[in-house]
Known about the structure:
The chain is an alpha+beta fold. It contains four helices and 19 strands. It has a domain of 175 residues: Jelly Rolls. The termini are far apart.
Amino acid sequence: MKWVLTALLMFALVxxxxxxxxxxxxxxxxxxxxxxxxxxxxxxxxxxPPALRVEPGDTIRTKTIDAAGTDxxxxxxxxxGNPQTGPFYVVGAAPGDTLAVHxxxxxxxxxxxxxxxxxxxxxxxxxxxxxxxxxxxxxxxRLDMSRGLAVREGGTAGLSEYSVPLNPMLGxxxxxxxxxxxxxxxxNIGPWGGNLDFNEIVEGATVFLPVNVPGGLLYFxxxxxxxxxxxxxxxxxxxxMDVEVQVDVLSTSIPAPRIESATHVMAMGLxxxxxxxxxxxxxxxxxxxxxKYELTFPEVSQVIGTSAEYRVSVVVGRNAGIVIxxxxxxxxxxxxxx
Length: 338
């Protein structure tokens, strides 16, 4: 009789996994894709053939090369200017949806990085710019994984004891812009994402991007071992990276990139000026909070007025970005929308 009991138990387990009317178990098997890129792209285009098709819930494990086009072995594999890995077509993603990109793993895969000794025009006065001389040199850094530090190679006297904590991040993450629009280069930003250079796009964060074309077409690259707020020198510590992301499709629409970490919700504002960027970021956050919680405008203004944290995300070339953050602890007393 033992085999009879076993059979009955197996039948019950299968039945429990079925919806009414189904004849097969309701089991979803998400895949892990090991993808080795051979071609890298210097624009976010809606017409680039997908490198890989994945399903919502799938994981992609791959590599990026640095902003100069150099891989983990020091071999030039792409054209300088933030060459991107991808694009990845997410089955079922349609214009008007949101793609959630969960950054599950970022690992430095070589022992060095490069930067420059420049400063962005967006952070310098004309007087300061006139006084700065001998700028524009490439700087090389040694990445000490065991100590979690970056150290200047051949540093001058003033930097002989200077070190930077490692904080691996993705400088670029984007979907394709709308079909028919000009394909922006990978130094650009927009509602679709791009060269965001926000140093909280790290392992454990989720980036939300608005879908403009079928499949979304996800690009990422421009990995940094560390970077100051805004990337004021025009560079992070540029390096190559092993990257793992999981993708999901949400049937909701957002106006611009949003980010969620273990502690905060964050909304981005992207423009050519910080004045306009802070307005866009604040509007983005207000729309997010009002969609998620039962708040009136007077109520949401009080949340922003008491809980907002602002960060400069990017000040490079013509790119200006502001991120508004709200700690999740501040949201616990709000009533979610049904």
